[in-house]
Amino acid sequence: MARSKHLSLVTLNKVAGAALAVPISVALAQPAPSPLQQLEPVTVTGRSTPALNVSGWGDIPLNKTPVQASIFSAEQIKDSGAQRLSDLIGFDPAISDAYNAEGYYDFLSVRGFVIDNRFNYRRDGLPINAETAIPLDNKSRVEILKGTSGMQAGTSAPGGLVNFVVKRPTDAPLRSAGLEWRQAGSVTGAVDLSQRFGVGQAFGVRLNAAAAHLDPQVHSAQGRRHLFALAADWRISADSLLEVEAETSRRSQPSVPGFSLLGNNVPAPSDPRINLNNQPWSLPVVFDANTASLRWQQRLGADWRFTAHLATQQLRTDDRIAFPFGCTDPNPAPDGTYYADRYCPNGTFDLYDFRSENERRRTDVLDLSVQGKLQTGSVRHVVTTGVQQSKVRNRFAQQAFNFVGTGNVDGSAMTAPDPTLSDENTNRDERSTELYLRDAIAFSERLTLWLGLRHTRLERESVRTDGSRPTSYAQSFTTPWLAVSHAFAAEQLVYASWGTGVESEVAPNRARYANRGEALPALKSRQVEVGLKGANEHFEWNLALFDVKRPLFVDLGACDVDNSCTRQVDGQARHRGIEASGAFRDGAWTVQGGTQWLRARVEGSATPSNNGLQPTNVPASTIKLQASYAVPAVAGLVLQGKVARESRRMALPDNSASIPGHTRVDLGARYESKLAGAQWTWRAGIDNLFDRRAWREAPYQFGHAYLFPLAPRTLRLSVQVDV
After folding, report:
1. Is the pLDDT of residue 2 over 70?
2. Is the pLDDT of residue 471 over 90?
3. Over 448-478, what HEC string results?
4. How many C-beta neighbours within 10 Å does residue 446 have?
5. Is 41's pLDDT higher than 50?
6. Does the structure show a pLDDT above 90 at 610?
7. φ, ψ at 13 (rounded to 5°)
8. Among the listed residues 678, 647, 528, the one whose alpha carbon sits nearest the alpha carbon of residue 177
9. CA quadruple 197, 201, 205, 206: dihedral positive or negative?
10. Does the pLDDT of residue 183 top 90, yes or no?
11. Is there a cis peptide before residue 268, judged by omega within 30 degrees of 0?
12. Residue 247's closest CA among 216, 280, 285, 208?
């Protein structure tokens, strides 16, 4: 029977007194054992890196697989003060902001590509829709796989996959409670309870609950959220395990729109506390989410296991905002009076009352798989094969997007609302069947060939909410993946990989698009990667060179009046880059970090002037460093620091405007002590220590340039008690 390795690099860091264990590509995180592994846990000494669930290679440790990834443990999430997924991007240079607004859901960019919220997210390995607020309170870790993902997903954008791993019942009783305060006045309380019972401790239950009053430093953005999650398991026998879990969550908070260019100029960074969604009639965005899964694992002899995994996700959203978009200049300029993709030079903008209420999204997935080991002569195989069926159903009502007047960038202009539901929406359905096979073929202790193959049958339909414009199509495609790795020395690995992915695009549901709301045909991307991994007693490192090509979806046409714009493929985006990361541990010190150099360019466009341009909102170079020091004179006290540096980002597709690079410094501390038989953990942090004013990102969304500022200096304090 496989045994779990509980003492990971993070645990070793604790023993050494270095408590800041932030993820880099080598994933310095505690592994979450697979369910059957929990049956006979043992503690080992030495170093161990976890297996990456989302990679598809089962129990093979990450440091022995030919992929690059980051793993963020629950402890790392607490140490960083992360409240949402986008709060974790400060640790990995390959991961960046892509349109992260207060009060809305997260968008991530990985290797310069914005990953798709509809298809690039997983929960315990199964697809989910991330067009919602995903709480982290009941997640044991977050995995981010970097690169194309056609082997792991039927349809997904290149760049990476995000997988949320749910907390499961522990072997030992767990009683934990925490309270956090964050400037200006956000307060979060949470409990985490786990207990085993029954004959032979066969049954386990784990409860996670959290509630928060949200009061960020941004004005007019108060809200609230809560989570209730329950996970249970039944160890039917030494070979059978049944797991069930469910969570329900709600977040209600006004979202904060971005600033923009003022005419042809990039303005100086604005006061990050200003909220342009501050009308008297502004309503919160409400995310309701219910998710549940059932997983049965059955051991089939010594080396084989069967898994049946069923999951459902049901989302309900009220998406509402006073939304700034473009500008009708009251003082005509020689080159025209309407700015379609930015604000006016004088700081005014057109303001719209946007409402799309009772949005309903449902995803149902069933995955059946068999995993095991076999020997053919002197060659050893680790094989996984299975089938996955999924069904997606999205239902919407009419929406409002009504012009209500003129706003300004200081947030002082007030207008009257217009909630008239005058714009049709688009309902969409998708059904897919995916057959997959993965085989890690070890020719010797050093040489391994990795083969992956996924065949997908996809059917999609869409229709406007008034019954007009029905569309449908069916498509089948196969996405192969191939790698070879060689362990040229102990704990040293070199590899090369080639893989493909398939993605699809839905034209924005805006009146200016002639094909609004329509699903566009799925197209293939491909990636080549060469990498090195190594480690010794004190130092661990990664190096990867990659080259990714993907079809480029663009807006063609004037795009300034109704039906003047068409969303379609025009050329390709090619991203070539180098990632390097390392971690050094010696005594009380832990120092780690990484850098990415990225050359992202447009190629093959029908418009020659577009070729050679850099995509918007993609920094060419990024450096992220972290350090911790366990103070010898104060047992249990660890001081932490983090520095992140990004180069400039293009704000417009023609590269005529950009935002400067910026540097952010964060400080933190953690103190652990025992009091009255309980373990107390106190955490404190100051984010953006020097209160730096800068534009954090410059996303170009729906044909419009936006600018988001760095959050102001923010103080956070928390206490956790474990009994």
Report:
1. no
2. no
3. EEEEEEEEEEEEEEEEECCCCCCEEEEEEEE
4. 12
5. no
6. no
7. -65, -35
8. 678
9. positive
10. yes
11. no
12. 208
Question: What span, in angstroms and rounded, lies between the C-alpha atoms of 78 and 718?
Answer: 9
Are 326 and 340 in contact by the 8 Å Cβ rule? The answer is yes
**C-alpha span between 455 and 478 (Å, rounded):** 4
Give the type of residue at 15.
V
Asked if 552 contacts 570 with a C-beta cutoff of 8 angstroms, the reply is yes
Mean pLDDT of all residues in 25-30: 33
670: tokens are 């953690």
Answer whether 400's CB lies under 8 Å from 422's CB. yes
What would you measure as the largest C-alpha separation in the chain, in angstroms?
Answer: 83
| Angle, alpha carbons 72-76-80 (nearest 5°) | 115
Which residues have a Cβ under 8 Å from the Cβ of 85 and sit 6 or more positions away? Answer: 106, 108, 134, 136, 142, 162
Q: Which residues of 560-588 are buried (b: 16+ CB within 10 A; e: fewer)?
A: eeeebbbbbbbbbbbbbbebbbbbebeee
Q: Hey, which residues does 395 pair with through a beta bridge? A: 360
What's the angle, vertex CA 519, arms to CA 514 and CA 520, rounded to 5? 85
Q: How far is the CA of 477 from the CAs of 155, 383, 418, 527, in angstroms?
A: 10, 22, 46, 17
| Strand order, beta sheet including 121-123 | 68-73, 139-146, 160-166, 121-123, 126-128
What span, in angstroms and rounded, lies between the C-alpha atoms of 451 and 693? Answer: 48
Quick check: helix, strand or coil at residue 76?
helix
Positive or negative torsion for Cα 557, 563, 569, 574: positive
The single residue listed with the structure tokens 């007019």 is 220
Looking at residue 29, its pLDDT comes to: 33
What are the residues facing 477 on neighbouring strands? 456
Q: Are 665 and 641 in contact (CB under 8 A)?
A: yes
Query: How does residue 18 score in pLDDT terms, banded at 50, 70 and 90?
Result: very low
- In the chain, % of residues over pLDDT 90: 77
Nearest to 422 by CA among 397, 456, 447: 397
Burial (CB count within 10 angstroms: exposed 0-12, middle 13-18, buried 19+), residue 234: middle
Residue 49's pLDDT is 65
**Structural domains of the chain sorted by starting position, each given as residue range(s) with its CATH number in brackets:** 174-722 (2.40.170.20)
Strands 348-376, 336-339: pairing is unpaired
More confident residue, 534 or 38: 534
3-state class of 240 per DSSP?
Answer: strand
- Round the CA-based radius of gyration of the chain to a whole number and report it: 25
DSSP 11: H
By DSSP bridging, strand 304-324 and strand 285-299 are antiparallel
pLDDT in tens, 224-280: 999 999 999 999 999 999 999 999 999 999 999 999 999 999 999 989 999 999 999
Q: Tell me the pairing of strands 714-722 and 379-395.
A: unpaired
The answer to whether residue 9 scores a pLDDT higher than 60 is: no
For residues 24 and 542, is the Cβ–Cβ distance under 8 A? yes
Which two three-digit tokens encode residue 56? 């598809």
How many CB atoms are located within 10 Å of the residue 238 CB?
Answer: 12
Count other C-beta atoms under 10 Å from residue 433's C-beta: 15
Check whether the bond before 184 is cis (ω within 30° of 0).
Answer: yes
pLDDT value at 16 more than 50: no
